[in-house]
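Think of the structure tokens as a kind of shorthand, similar to the way a musician reads notation: each symbol stands for something richer, in this case the local conformation of the backbone. In the example below we present two proteins back to back. Begin with the first one, reading the sequence and then the tokens, and try to describe in your own words what changes along the chain.
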Amino acid sequence: MHGLSAFPITPTDDDGNPIAAELAGLIDRLGQAGVDSIGILGSTGGYAYLTPDQRMRATQIALDAAQAPVIVGVGALRSDVSARLARHAADAGAAGLLLAPMSYTPLTEDEVFQHFRTVAGASDLPICIYNNPSTTHFSFSPELLARLAQLPQVSAVKMPLPADDDFTGRIAELRSLLPSGFAIGYSGDWGCADALLAGADAWFSVAAGLWPEQSLALTRAAMSGDHNPTQEWQARFQTLWDLFIAHGSLRVVHAAARIMGLTTALPPRPLLPLPDDAMPRLGSAIDALQG
């Protein structure tokens, strides 16, 4: 739950079945690069578009190929399904769990707490709270985070970027409420270097799923407080960040993985591929990172 956690796509066929060789290849190259952990079946991994059986199959493929600790996303609409996925991940050898409160009917804080307590009771694996209101439409209050942190298995949080960009203030507020050693990480790749410079513990990264070496260099520079190399890497990533913001990172990384020859898969429908008019900019983004 510390350092760089790389989140790759889950290549699937038209029926949502994982393409084993492609997923294993993506996982293997992340371990070869030396990322601190690999996060599978998060938003980038398309967990919401897969059945529980497809997710368990993807988990097994990833764990068989992994050379780094693997954090498995177990978010689901029903608590019993999340608990089942958590038990499977633990039995298969995962190092941790990532849990988002998916919903159709909007959830209350008490409902989210009970959901986490159910999943925490399914295994001894550490759980990272996935605070992603843009997809779940649920935002964790600081008080709820503190309440969840009292569950022994809950040991980290994956936070969205603050609207006012006040990472220092937000991190200080969270540290005042959360137990010592509780990991505070961020997603929203374009802002995570600033989060690390401000003292965040982790970057849960979409980009690292395809560009692990470059993302590691940015992570190490930012976590060391080295502003100049951090800004140099940010400049190299900037075109990619702009594409993420404009089109959504899932569409962008699927298209990039195809260009790079790492997958034949398209985004899960009803998502459509990255528009043709964005492809030249994506090519430029890839060149900037690989040049």
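Once you have a description of the first chain, move to the second and do the same.
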Amino acid sequence: MTNKKQQLIYLAAASHSGSTMTAMLLGAHPDLCSVGELKAVNLGEKESYLCSCKTLVSECGFWQGVTQKMADKGHDFCISEAGTDIKTDATPYVLRLLKPLVRSPLMEFVRDTLLCCSPVWRKNLPLLQKRNADYARSIAEQAGVDIVVDSSKIGIRLKYLLKNPDLDVKVIWVVRDGRGVSLAYKNPSEFADAKNPTLRGGGAGKTQEQGRGIEVGAYEWVRCNQETEAVLATMPKKNWIQVHYEDICNNTEQTLDTLFNFIGVDPAKKRLDFKTVEHHVVGNGMRLDDSEVIQLDDRWKTLLSEEELQTYYQVTGDYHSRLGYLE
């Protein structure tokens, strides 16, 4: 077993911020591999769930290879029950402590202290850390690359990945206009899943996520981005970068060059025909769309009412402009 740390690029973002598209654009580079969210929860109905190669994930050769490589490392692994989420096998006590988003160093010290009072947490955390590192390493080995992209987004997962002794983590903070994010929360089927209705829900033909409204979307947009900021404050600036979804869409080549230079791979090898490249991604439904047209989705401009926009601004306050957006 090598002692070399596995390189991991973590996409931190609020839900519906374009992380799947970003991950697939990065994963199209020959020196990177993205399989979507490595936390791999809520994949949908096992019998119908499709890999982005349009094969049932249970029959996909790539995932069969990853499963075998995990077995070689001593893990009983199946992508449908990956067991890589930080909350895996958590007791109710631990779940309560893991629920709040990452906040100030003092609050995180309190959280960690209380977690250490749980014998189950003390036992499980090293096992989860090893499983996550071996999972990333197995993906890299199967894809024949050195660097893996994880688009799991959430800050609490990132917090513990940064403490994983077997991982070398860099972070890309993907920010999207919160009005677009809120519209996706309002109608996930239309704005956050495959365009083909028969492929929604990973192939089940129905979107699992239910609409939750503009106010909820705005609230989550603020909370998740603030959580990312709290985690990034603990990192050296050279290990993280912020990128806007709008720049990825409108200035794709230049933005990708910046990201690949940050990662440390040759930008000249980028592929804009990212859907042509073989991918084995699980997660957001857009991975199953055939189109590789990179186009800004700003439908919120015509589909959000004045009343909905006012609700959004009341929730987000000056944080909306702080992240670079104007009314």
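Compare your description with these statements about the second chain. The mean pLDDT is 91.
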